[in-house]
Design brief:
This protein has 358 residues and is α/β, with parallel strands linked by helices. The chain has two domains: 13-252, 3-Layer(aba) Sandwich (Aspartate Aminotransferase, domain 2), CATH 3.40.640.10; 257-357, Aspartate Aminotransferase, domain 1, CATH 3.90.1150. The chain has helices at 13-23, 34-47, 59-70, 84-87, 92-96, 114-123, 150-163, 174-181, 185-188, 217-220, 223-229, 238-248, 252-272, 294-302, 338-357, and strands spanning 52-56, 76-80, 101-105, 133-139, 166-171, 196-200, 210-214, 278-279, 287-288, 290-293, 308-309, 325-331. The strands form two sheets. A seven-stranded mixed beta sheet has the order 1-7-6-5-4-2-3, sandwiched between helices. Strands 8, 9, 10, 11 and 12 form a five-stranded antiparallel beta sheet that branches. The chain starts with 12 loop residues before the first helix and ends with a helix.
Length: 358
Protein backbone atom coordinates (compact mmCIF):
# COMPACT_ATOMS: atom_id res chain seq x y z
CA UNK A 1 0.00 0.00 0.00
CA UNK A 2 2.56 2.54 -1.12
CA UNK A 3 0.94 5.70 -2.45
CA UNK A 4 3.79 8.09 -1.67
CA UNK A 5 4.47 9.05 -5.30
CA UNK A 6 4.42 7.88 -8.89
CA UNK A 7 8.22 8.20 -8.79
CA UNK A 8 8.66 5.27 -6.43
CA UNK A 9 8.09 2.52 -9.01
CA UNK A 10 10.57 1.48 -11.68
CA UNK A 11 10.14 1.51 -15.43
CA UNK A 12 7.59 -0.35 -17.52
CA UNK A 13 9.01 -3.59 -18.98
CA UNK A 14 8.49 -2.46 -22.62
CA UNK A 15 10.60 0.63 -21.87
CA UNK A 16 13.39 -1.52 -20.46
CA UNK A 17 13.15 -3.85 -23.46
CA UNK A 18 13.55 -0.89 -25.83
CA UNK A 19 16.50 0.32 -23.79
CA UNK A 20 18.23 -3.06 -24.10
CA UNK A 21 17.66 -3.14 -27.87
CA UNK A 22 19.19 0.33 -28.28
CA UNK A 23 22.11 -0.65 -26.08
CA UNK A 24 23.40 -3.21 -28.57
CA UNK A 25 26.24 -2.19 -30.86
CA UNK A 26 27.80 1.19 -31.63
CA UNK A 27 25.73 4.21 -32.64
CA UNK A 28 26.48 7.85 -33.26
CA UNK A 29 26.73 9.95 -30.10
CA UNK A 30 24.97 13.09 -28.87
CA UNK A 31 21.53 12.38 -30.27
CA UNK A 32 22.28 12.03 -33.99
CA UNK A 33 21.58 8.29 -33.99
CA UNK A 34 18.72 6.52 -35.73
CA UNK A 35 16.78 5.91 -32.49
CA UNK A 36 16.76 9.62 -31.66
CA UNK A 37 15.69 10.43 -35.20
CA UNK A 38 12.79 7.99 -35.01
CA UNK A 39 11.67 9.40 -31.68
CA UNK A 40 11.77 12.98 -32.98
CA UNK A 41 9.61 11.88 -35.91
CA UNK A 42 7.24 10.10 -33.49
CA UNK A 43 6.83 13.26 -31.42
CA UNK A 44 5.94 15.15 -34.60
CA UNK A 45 3.37 12.49 -35.45
CA UNK A 46 1.86 12.53 -31.96
CA UNK A 47 1.62 16.32 -31.88
CA UNK A 48 0.47 16.60 -35.52
CA UNK A 49 3.19 19.05 -36.58
CA UNK A 50 6.90 19.62 -36.74
CA UNK A 51 8.23 20.25 -33.27
CA UNK A 52 11.71 20.85 -31.87
CA UNK A 53 12.55 18.03 -29.44
CA UNK A 54 15.21 18.27 -26.72
CA UNK A 55 15.37 15.10 -24.57
CA UNK A 56 16.69 15.54 -21.02
CA UNK A 57 16.90 13.30 -17.97
CA UNK A 58 14.85 15.17 -15.35
CA UNK A 59 11.74 17.29 -15.09
CA UNK A 60 13.70 19.99 -13.26
CA UNK A 61 16.07 20.27 -16.22
CA UNK A 62 13.15 20.39 -18.66
CA UNK A 63 11.36 23.15 -16.76
CA UNK A 64 14.43 25.22 -16.01
CA UNK A 65 15.79 25.11 -19.55
CA UNK A 66 12.40 25.70 -21.16
CA UNK A 67 11.84 28.81 -19.08
CA UNK A 68 15.38 30.02 -19.69
CA UNK A 69 14.62 30.08 -23.43
CA UNK A 70 11.52 32.21 -22.87
CA UNK A 71 12.58 34.61 -20.11
CA UNK A 72 15.58 36.97 -20.20
CA UNK A 73 17.66 37.58 -17.05
CA UNK A 74 15.77 40.80 -16.37
CA UNK A 75 12.33 39.20 -16.71
CA UNK A 76 9.68 37.40 -14.66
CA UNK A 77 8.06 34.00 -15.10
CA UNK A 78 4.62 33.79 -13.53
CA UNK A 79 3.20 30.58 -12.06
CA UNK A 80 0.76 29.35 -9.44
CA UNK A 81 1.89 29.96 -5.87
CA UNK A 82 1.92 26.17 -5.30
CA UNK A 83 3.78 25.38 -8.54
CA UNK A 84 6.51 22.76 -8.52
CA UNK A 85 8.92 25.14 -10.28
CA UNK A 86 8.52 27.62 -7.44
CA UNK A 87 8.56 25.32 -4.40
CA UNK A 88 10.31 22.09 -5.34
CA UNK A 89 13.17 22.73 -7.76
CA UNK A 90 15.71 24.42 -5.47
CA UNK A 91 15.81 27.61 -7.53
CA UNK A 92 16.87 25.79 -10.71
CA UNK A 93 14.57 27.80 -13.02
CA UNK A 94 15.89 31.09 -11.64
CA UNK A 95 19.47 29.78 -11.82
CA UNK A 96 19.15 28.86 -15.50
CA UNK A 97 17.26 32.06 -16.25
CA UNK A 98 20.38 33.85 -14.93
CA UNK A 99 18.66 36.13 -12.46
CA UNK A 100 15.09 36.24 -13.72
CA UNK A 101 12.43 35.77 -11.07
CA UNK A 102 9.55 33.41 -10.47
CA UNK A 103 6.40 35.04 -9.10
CA UNK A 104 3.62 32.85 -7.68
CA UNK A 105 -0.01 33.93 -8.02
CA UNK A 106 -3.06 32.57 -6.16
CA UNK A 107 -5.69 30.41 -7.80
CA UNK A 108 -8.50 28.07 -6.79
CA UNK A 109 -7.92 24.30 -7.09
CA UNK A 110 -4.30 24.83 -8.08
CA UNK A 111 -5.23 26.67 -11.27
CA UNK A 112 -4.60 30.20 -12.45
CA UNK A 113 -7.41 32.32 -13.88
CA UNK A 114 -6.83 34.75 -16.78
CA UNK A 115 -8.14 37.64 -14.68
CA UNK A 116 -5.52 36.94 -12.00
CA UNK A 117 -2.70 36.91 -14.54
CA UNK A 118 -3.99 40.00 -16.31
CA UNK A 119 -4.53 41.82 -13.03
CA UNK A 120 -0.95 41.23 -11.95
CA UNK A 121 0.65 42.12 -15.27
CA UNK A 122 -1.49 45.15 -16.00
CA UNK A 123 -0.85 46.80 -12.65
CA UNK A 124 2.94 46.53 -12.76
CA UNK A 125 4.79 49.80 -13.33
CA UNK A 126 6.37 50.08 -16.76
CA UNK A 127 10.02 51.02 -17.17
CA UNK A 128 13.49 49.81 -16.33
CA UNK A 129 12.91 49.84 -12.57
CA UNK A 130 10.44 46.95 -12.85
CA UNK A 131 11.25 43.48 -14.16
CA UNK A 132 8.77 42.72 -16.96
CA UNK A 133 6.79 39.44 -17.10
CA UNK A 134 7.83 37.35 -20.10
CA UNK A 135 6.28 33.92 -19.51
CA UNK A 136 3.51 32.09 -17.71
CA UNK A 137 3.99 28.49 -16.58
CA UNK A 138 1.03 26.21 -15.86
CA UNK A 139 1.19 22.68 -14.42
CA UNK A 140 -0.79 19.96 -16.14
CA UNK A 141 -1.69 18.06 -13.85
CA UNK A 142 -1.65 20.81 -11.18
CA UNK A 143 -0.06 20.47 -7.76
CA UNK A 144 -3.57 19.96 -6.37
CA UNK A 145 -4.32 17.03 -8.69
CA UNK A 146 -6.67 19.02 -10.91
CA UNK A 147 -6.57 19.35 -14.70
CA UNK A 148 -6.82 22.48 -16.84
CA UNK A 149 -9.65 22.13 -19.38
CA UNK A 150 -8.95 23.04 -22.99
CA UNK A 151 -10.91 26.29 -22.79
CA UNK A 152 -9.01 27.27 -19.65
CA UNK A 153 -5.68 26.76 -21.43
CA UNK A 154 -6.91 28.72 -24.45
CA UNK A 155 -8.10 31.61 -22.27
CA UNK A 156 -4.75 31.79 -20.49
CA UNK A 157 -2.93 31.66 -23.83
CA UNK A 158 -5.01 34.56 -25.12
CA UNK A 159 -4.16 36.54 -21.99
CA UNK A 160 -0.49 35.79 -22.58
CA UNK A 161 -0.55 36.79 -26.25
CA UNK A 162 -2.19 40.11 -25.43
CA UNK A 163 0.62 40.89 -23.00
CA UNK A 164 3.65 39.46 -24.77
CA UNK A 165 4.10 36.40 -22.54
CA UNK A 166 5.13 32.93 -23.69
CA UNK A 167 3.01 30.08 -22.31
CA UNK A 168 4.93 27.15 -20.83
CA UNK A 169 3.28 23.92 -19.70
CA UNK A 170 4.91 21.78 -17.02
CA UNK A 171 3.64 18.39 -18.18
CA UNK A 172 5.21 16.15 -15.54
CA UNK A 173 1.92 14.20 -15.58
CA UNK A 174 1.05 15.08 -19.16
CA UNK A 175 -0.37 11.66 -20.06
CA UNK A 176 -2.59 11.54 -16.97
CA UNK A 177 -4.12 14.89 -17.89
CA UNK A 178 -4.46 13.86 -21.52
CA UNK A 179 -6.50 10.73 -20.86
CA UNK A 180 -8.55 12.54 -18.22
CA UNK A 181 -9.61 15.10 -20.83
CA UNK A 182 -9.97 12.57 -23.65
CA UNK A 183 -8.30 14.87 -26.16
CA UNK A 184 -5.23 14.72 -28.40
CA UNK A 185 -1.77 16.02 -27.42
CA UNK A 186 -2.09 18.74 -30.06
CA UNK A 187 -5.45 19.83 -28.66
CA UNK A 188 -4.00 20.16 -25.16
CA UNK A 189 -0.97 22.17 -26.24
CA UNK A 190 -0.20 24.21 -29.33
CA UNK A 191 -3.76 24.26 -30.68
CA UNK A 192 -4.70 26.13 -27.48
CA UNK A 193 -1.68 28.42 -27.62
CA UNK A 194 1.03 26.62 -25.62
CA UNK A 195 4.47 27.73 -26.84
CA UNK A 196 6.76 25.31 -25.03
CA UNK A 197 6.14 22.06 -23.15
CA UNK A 198 8.02 20.04 -20.56
CA UNK A 199 6.88 16.57 -21.61
CA UNK A 200 7.12 14.20 -18.66
CA UNK A 201 7.50 10.43 -18.98
CA UNK A 202 9.46 9.33 -15.91
CA UNK A 203 6.41 9.28 -13.61
CA UNK A 204 4.43 7.20 -16.12
CA UNK A 205 6.74 4.36 -17.04
CA UNK A 206 10.15 5.59 -18.14
CA UNK A 207 13.41 5.13 -16.28
CA UNK A 208 14.56 8.74 -16.66
CA UNK A 209 13.29 10.48 -19.76
CA UNK A 210 11.72 13.91 -20.20
CA UNK A 211 11.67 16.18 -23.21
CA UNK A 212 11.38 19.88 -23.97
CA UNK A 213 9.03 20.30 -26.92
CA UNK A 214 9.08 23.71 -28.59
CA UNK A 215 6.18 24.84 -30.76
CA UNK A 216 7.46 28.40 -31.25
CA UNK A 217 10.58 28.21 -33.47
CA UNK A 218 11.94 31.44 -32.00
CA UNK A 219 12.19 29.78 -28.58
CA UNK A 220 14.00 26.73 -29.96
CA UNK A 221 16.99 28.55 -31.37
CA UNK A 222 19.04 28.76 -28.16
CA UNK A 223 17.96 25.53 -26.50
CA UNK A 224 20.58 23.29 -28.08
CA UNK A 225 23.26 25.49 -26.50
CA UNK A 226 21.43 25.87 -23.20
CA UNK A 227 20.97 22.11 -22.90
CA UNK A 228 24.67 21.51 -23.57
CA UNK A 229 25.76 24.09 -20.99
CA UNK A 230 23.45 22.46 -18.45
CA UNK A 231 25.06 19.04 -18.88
CA UNK A 232 21.89 17.62 -20.42
CA UNK A 233 23.19 16.83 -23.91
CA UNK A 234 23.78 13.15 -23.18
CA UNK A 235 26.56 11.50 -25.17
CA UNK A 236 24.68 8.20 -25.33
CA UNK A 237 21.53 10.01 -26.32
CA UNK A 238 20.05 6.89 -27.89
CA UNK A 239 19.50 5.49 -24.38
CA UNK A 240 17.25 8.40 -23.50
CA UNK A 241 15.45 8.28 -26.85
CA UNK A 242 14.97 4.51 -26.60
CA UNK A 243 12.88 4.96 -23.49
CA UNK A 244 10.46 7.12 -25.46
CA UNK A 245 10.40 4.52 -28.22
CA UNK A 246 9.25 1.87 -25.74
CA UNK A 247 6.94 4.36 -24.04
CA UNK A 248 5.06 5.23 -27.22
CA UNK A 249 4.96 1.70 -28.71
CA UNK A 250 1.42 0.29 -28.81
CA UNK A 251 0.27 3.41 -26.90
CA UNK A 252 1.82 2.13 -23.68
CA UNK A 253 1.99 5.68 -22.33
CA UNK A 254 -1.77 6.12 -22.63
CA UNK A 255 -2.55 2.70 -21.18
CA UNK A 256 -0.29 3.41 -18.21
CA UNK A 257 -1.97 6.73 -17.54
CA UNK A 258 -5.46 5.28 -17.85
CA UNK A 259 -4.61 2.61 -15.29
CA UNK A 260 -3.20 5.15 -12.82
CA UNK A 261 -6.23 7.41 -13.24
CA UNK A 262 -8.61 4.46 -12.87
CA UNK A 263 -6.93 3.43 -9.62
CA UNK A 264 -7.21 7.01 -8.38
CA UNK A 265 -10.92 7.08 -9.12
CA UNK A 266 -11.42 3.78 -7.32
CA UNK A 267 -9.58 5.15 -4.31
CA UNK A 268 -11.29 8.54 -4.43
CA UNK A 269 -14.77 7.07 -4.71
CA UNK A 270 -14.07 4.67 -1.86
CA UNK A 271 -12.66 7.31 0.46
CA UNK A 272 -15.39 9.89 -0.12
CA UNK A 273 -17.97 7.23 0.69
CA UNK A 274 -16.63 6.99 4.23
CA UNK A 275 -17.97 9.15 7.09
CA UNK A 276 -15.60 11.95 8.09
CA UNK A 277 -13.66 11.98 4.81
CA UNK A 278 -13.79 14.77 2.23
CA UNK A 279 -11.58 15.84 -0.68
CA UNK A 280 -9.52 19.01 -0.52
CA UNK A 281 -9.67 19.26 -4.33
CA UNK A 282 -11.39 17.24 -7.05
CA UNK A 283 -9.50 14.06 -7.95
CA UNK A 284 -9.22 14.50 -11.71
CA UNK A 285 -6.14 12.47 -12.65
CA UNK A 286 -3.90 10.16 -10.60
CA UNK A 287 -3.69 12.03 -7.29
CA UNK A 288 -6.16 12.06 -4.42
CA UNK A 289 -6.04 14.61 -1.59
CA UNK A 290 -8.45 13.51 1.15
CA UNK A 291 -8.89 15.19 4.50
CA UNK A 292 -9.25 12.28 6.93
CA UNK A 293 -9.74 11.81 10.68
CA UNK A 294 -6.45 11.45 12.53
CA UNK A 295 -7.66 8.12 13.88
CA UNK A 296 -7.94 6.87 10.28
CA UNK A 297 -4.49 8.19 9.44
CA UNK A 298 -3.03 6.32 12.43
CA UNK A 299 -4.81 3.09 11.48
CA UNK A 300 -3.64 3.26 7.87
CA UNK A 301 -0.04 3.89 8.81
CA UNK A 302 -0.14 1.12 11.40
CA UNK A 303 -1.34 -1.23 8.64
CA UNK A 304 1.70 -0.33 6.53
CA UNK A 305 0.25 2.32 4.23
CA UNK A 306 2.83 4.77 2.91
CA UNK A 307 1.83 8.28 1.81
CA UNK A 308 2.59 11.90 2.65
CA UNK A 309 0.80 14.40 4.84
CA UNK A 310 0.23 17.48 2.71
CA UNK A 311 0.51 21.22 3.26
CA UNK A 312 -2.70 23.12 3.95
CA UNK A 313 -1.42 26.33 2.34
CA UNK A 314 -3.03 25.55 -1.02
CA UNK A 315 -6.52 25.00 0.32
CA UNK A 316 -9.25 27.11 -1.22
CA UNK A 317 -10.58 30.06 0.72
CA UNK A 318 -13.08 28.90 3.31
CA UNK A 319 -11.67 25.37 3.52
CA UNK A 320 -9.78 24.29 6.60
CA UNK A 321 -8.41 21.16 8.22
CA UNK A 322 -9.90 20.59 11.65
CA UNK A 323 -8.01 19.84 14.83
CA UNK A 324 -8.81 16.13 14.59
CA UNK A 325 -8.06 15.87 10.86
CA UNK A 326 -5.10 15.64 8.50
CA UNK A 327 -4.74 16.39 4.80
CA UNK A 328 -2.85 13.68 2.92
CA UNK A 329 -1.75 13.03 -0.66
CA UNK A 330 -2.24 9.63 -2.28
CA UNK A 331 -0.59 9.10 -5.67
CA UNK A 332 -1.48 6.20 -7.96
CA UNK A 333 0.80 4.91 -10.71
CA UNK A 334 0.86 2.64 -13.74
CA UNK A 335 2.09 -0.12 -11.42
CA UNK A 336 -0.52 0.31 -8.66
CA UNK A 337 -2.34 -2.95 -7.97
CA UNK A 338 -6.08 -2.86 -7.39
CA UNK A 339 -5.68 -5.22 -4.44
CA UNK A 340 -3.61 -2.58 -2.64
CA UNK A 341 -6.26 0.06 -3.23
CA UNK A 342 -9.01 -2.20 -1.90
CA UNK A 343 -6.94 -3.17 1.14
CA UNK A 344 -6.34 0.53 1.87
CA UNK A 345 -10.09 1.16 1.68
CA UNK A 346 -10.81 -1.81 3.91
CA UNK A 347 -8.44 -0.51 6.59
CA UNK A 348 -9.95 2.98 6.32
CA UNK A 349 -13.48 1.60 6.66
CA UNK A 350 -12.46 -0.56 9.64
CA UNK A 351 -11.06 2.51 11.39
CA UNK A 352 -14.41 4.27 10.96
CA UNK A 353 -16.22 1.31 12.53
CA UNK A 354 -13.73 1.13 15.37
CA UNK A 355 -14.07 4.83 16.08
CA UNK A 356 -17.88 4.59 16.09
CA UNK A 357 -17.76 1.70 18.54
CA UNK A 358 -15.71 3.61 21.11
Amino acid sequence: MNFASDNIVGASPPVLDALLRANAGPKAAYGVDDVSERVAARFAEIFEREVAVFPVTTGTAANALALSAAVPPYGIALCHQEAHILLDECGAPEFFMHGAKLVGLPGRDGKLAPATVAGYVDTLPKGVHQMPPRALSVSQVTECGTVYRLDEIADLAATCRQRGLALHMDGARFANALVALGCSPAEMTWKQGVDILSFGATKNGCLMAEAILVFDPALAESLAYRRKRAGQTISKGRLIAAQFEGYFADDLWLANARHANRMAKLLSDGMTGLPGVRLAWPAEANEVFPIVPRSMDRALRAAGANYHAWSETGLNEGDAVGEGEVLVRLVLSFATEEADVRRFLDVAAASVRAQAAE
